[in-house]
Each structure stands twice: as C-alpha cells, then as structure tokens.
Amino acid sequence: MSVIVIVAIVALLILWVIGVQRKLVGSEELCKNAMSQIGVQQSSRWDALTALAELIKSYNEHEYNTLRDIIAQRTSITSVSTAKDADNQENILTDALGRINVVAESYPELKANDGYIKTMDSVNLYENQVRTSRMVYNDTVTSYNRTVRQFPDSIVAGMLGFREKDYLQENRAKSDMPSMKI
Question: How would you classify residue 101: left for phi > 0, otherwise alpha for psi between -120 and 50, otherwise beta?
Fold first, then answer.
C-alpha cells in the first residue's frame, strides 16, 4: 500500500514539474514573439527613415551623410534580442528622427514635399505600433517573471534554468513634458 502512495506522489510531482515547465516555455515564447514584433515595427521605421534620408539628400548633403551614418548603425531586433538591444535601437531611431526634424525645420519646402509628408505619416504610424508592441512586451515579461519568481513554480524555474527577463525602459526624451511657458 505504501509503495502505491509513494508512486502516486512521485507521479503527481512529475506531472506538476511537467506542467510548470510547459507554462514557463509558453510564457517565454510569448516574450520572444513580443520582442520579434518590436523588431518588425522598428524595421519598418528604419525603412521609412531611410526614405526620408534620401529626400533630405537633395536639400542638405551633410545631413544626408550624417543620417546615412546613423542608419548604418541599424541592427535587427529578433526574438532572441534583449530588452537592452531593443532600447538601444529605439534610441538610435529617436536620434535619427530628431535630426530629420531639424533639417525639415531649416527647409520649409522639404516639409511641404508630398513624399516627406507621406513618409512622416508612415513613421508616426510605425512609431505608434512600436509603442504598442513595447507595452505588449513588458506586459508579457511581467507575466513570465511572475511565474519565474512565485513559489512553488520558482523551484522548477530555477532547476530548469529559467531566469527573469528585463523590461524595456522608458525613453526619457519622449516622456519629459515639454515646457508650456509662453
């Protein structure tokens, strides 16, 4: 009788470990998918910024070369990228867009160019999609990290090598409220 009880307890423990492992793998895959979606959206933004750089070429060769150098820093964000990788690319994109805005302010005829207007609309659309993808990623990481940290699942997570994931950081340049002084 006691052998049956011991076998049943061991079987339940094995089933529990398998269940936790499956939950952790599923959560980790959701995190990878969310990061991959960020990469897709950032890639679209890079393409739009490249098109803007080509428009700028006819207005200011120096700024075009500077933007080309910034665009050369582009790296792909994939499912295995880290939050730091995505944040670094976001910062480079933000810098490039800032440079483009400075050039556009200097050349009003550029701002009035149909190609510029359409491409900036695309950049804004992709930026909103990246913002949404970043929120989804952080929400997914919250769920994953909760599973990794909560007892008793944390025991299985530790045994199987599942570690907490980093969150994407807030871009301070975008979150600072502009001065409203008149």
Answer: alpha
